[in-house]
Amino acid sequence: MTSANTTAPSTSPHRQDGENYRLSLPNTARSAGIARHFVASLLTGTPHCGIVDDARLCVTEVVANAHRHTRTSLIRVQVTVGTEQVTVSVADDTPWTAPAAGATSDGMNPTRHAQECGRGLFLLDELALAWGSEVCGCCSPSHKAVWFTLAGGAETTAQQSARPHTPIQA
Question: How far is residue 22's CA from residue 118's CA, in Å, rounded to a whole number?
């Protein structure tokens, strides 16, 4: 992973009003699947049911990145379910490795790297209303959080599915 600035507005997603849910997971290969089911269970049967698939895909990618690219012992997932949008934040204990879509830490061509190592951050760019990362802990940074926001009310879900999507090249 390469250090980079956020690709979304710098407004913290944690200021969103709504219900907050948290899940702490060990840093194992199974954590992405558990996080995926956790998020899906929170959104199914709510006005946000139209974004369940996007939320499942995005949280899987972000948790999988935390598992693959950090040595953190715990991966913490926080989901804020608001009336019009849902924000998911995934925190790990490696504060100085912020993700960037298209960036690689090994100098590989980003397109080739995406073909070989997955497309997680490209998917966030495509599916999320906004996404970014933040270092937490003030003067003594202790962890970072990668977050994404999806629009999820009935009206915004209809608008989202009507917008054109640019296919990601394989």
Answer: 26
Crossing angle for the helix pair 52-69 and 31-43, to the nearest 10 degrees: 160
Q: Where are the alpha helices (DSSP H) in 26-132?
A: 31-43, 52-69, 110-117, 120-127
Per-residue confidence in pLDDT tens, the chain, 170 aa: 333 333 333 344 545 688 999 999 999 999 999 999 999 999 998 999 999 999 999 999 999 999 998 888 999 999 999 999 999 999 998 756 555 544 443 444 445 444 445 577 888 889 999 999 887 766 554 678 899 999 976 554 444 444 444 343 33
DSSP β-ladder status, 74-81 and 19-26: antiparallel
At residue 58's C-alpha, the angle toward residues 54 and 62, to 5°, is 175
Edge-to-edge strand order for the sheet containing 74-81?
A: 19-26, 74-81, 85-92, 143-151, 130-136
Neighbours of 1 (CB within 10 A): 18
* Residue pair 43/51 in contact by the 8 Å Cβ criterion: yes
Question: pTM for this one?
Answer: 0.71
